[in-house]
Amino acid sequence: MEFQCPHCGINMTTEDENAGQVVACPSCSEKFEIPAPAQREAPTRTKKARHKLRGGWEEEDHANVNFLLSLGLAIAITVAFMVALVPFPPNPVSDLFLRRGWVNYAETFFFVWGVVILVMKWRKSVRQQRAMLLDILPKSLGDEITSETVPGFIDHIYNLPMQLRDSLMVNRLRKGLELFEKRNDNAEVNNVLDAQSDIDANRIAGSYTLLKVFLWAIPIFGFIGTVQGLSVAVSSLSAGADDLEMLKESINKLTSGLGVVFDTTFLGLILSIILSFPMAVMQKHEEEMLTTIDVFCNEKLLPRLNDTKRDKGDFFSEVEDIPAFAASLTKAHERFLVDLNLATKLLADAGETLKTRLDTHQTHVEGAFIQSINRLTTETREAFTKPTIEMNNYFATLSKGIESLDETLRKLGGETIVVKKRGLFSR
């Protein structure tokens, strides 16, 4: 339900079951009782010029704290704490912070600095929570957010108090609505909201970098104190054991060194553990806050955006826009014809170029094919002709040999031919 603060008149929203509860106004901090649904009055809004020049506002960094301010507060609190322990008589607590050397001073300072940063971030988070109670998109301005009604929603945001206007929730919704007013496109608004969500998440994650360094540095300083104390203890053992006074002094140095060893390590581990818990709680709280803003944008803003330009009845009812629309349509048609002629000419030129290249390629392929056929025919003819010629030469030689043998036999006639064989034992 929607209701107003009776003191400052700012619009707010809550569930119906919260009626009757006493709350503090996020704007003026005055307490009042949430009215019942039947008692609440219709909210009113200040009407402003629709074409008001909007330039947004300078956004504060809602995740990171002021570095110099947090450093100054940490130094002041650390010094005040150490000074406050001075009047107390020696005891384990004061000795732990004051009489164990510079390492414990450094550990205490970094711990206090981390606590100061967490407190400053908590104050920023409380401010964000207060801004999330605002009725940023009142239904009295319209159930749907269209190109005609979106200026009223933007003016409503600009009417909010500055201390509540500059918040993660309001900044994201303002950017989405102003983009919708200019582009009238739900998809673009959705993309911008997603991108802004990633930016906010990365900024919050980066704001814990210094705290993570503190969680790493405090135990490291404890180990440095351990090494320092061991060095003192070991050096005390080099004293001679013959002199009683020197032996006492050596034992005192050994005890003092061991005290530094244990106390610095103990203090570093304890402070790092104490600092880690509120840091984890704060980080989880900020991540849940971002999730709540994302849910609000997805469930409350985007479903109400209507990027329909105009319906059929509105189009024909505005007769004065028809001539302008007809002129625009004629100009678009002429432009289309010019582009079509240009595209046709480009296609024709491309076709001629392609045809020329195809003809050249075909001629080249035909020439290469004919050349290959001729070379293959020549090589085949030579392959078959050469064996035939060699065979003819062989037969001619064989014929001459037969004719020579026949002539020899004819000359011999009936004469007997004796072949004498000689061997090893022949005579």
Can you walk me through this structure?
It is a single chain. The protein has 427 residues and is mainly α. Helices cover 68% and strands 3% of the residues. The protein contains 11 helices and 4 strands. It has helices at residues 67-85, 92-98, 102-131, 150-158, 162-165, 168-183, 186-206, 209-236, 244-301, 312-317, 321-412; strands at residues 2-4, 11-13, 22-24, 31-33. The strands form 2 sheets. The protein has a two-stranded antiparallel sheet with strand order 1-2. A hairpin with a 6-residue loop joins β3 and β4. α1 (67-85) packs across α3 and α7 (186-206) packs antiparallel against α9. It is flat and about 160 Å long. Mean pLDDT is 77; it is low at 39-53, 310-319 and 423-427.
Helicity, as a percent range: 55-70%
Strand content: under 5%
Widest sheet, order of strands: 1-2
Helix vs. strand class: mainly alpha
**What is the radius of gyration?**
50 Å
Q: What's the N-to-C terminus distance?
A: 150 Å
Element order, helices and strands? EEEEHHHHHHHHHHH
Morphology: flat
Count up the helices: 11
What kind of sheet is the major sheet?
2 strands, antiparallel
Write the layout of secondary structure elements.
Elements: E1 2-4, E2 11-13, E3 22-24, E4 31-33, H1 67-85, H2 92-98, H3 102-131, H4 150-158, H5 162-165, H6 168-183, H7 186-206, H8 209-236, H9 244-301, H10 312-317, H11 321-412
Antiparallel strand pairs: 1-2, 3-4
Helix pairs in contact: 1-3, 3-8, 3-9, 4-6, 6-7, 7-9, 8-9
Q: Can you tag this structure with a few keywords?
A:
427 residues; 4 strands; mainly alpha; two-stranded antiparallel ribbon
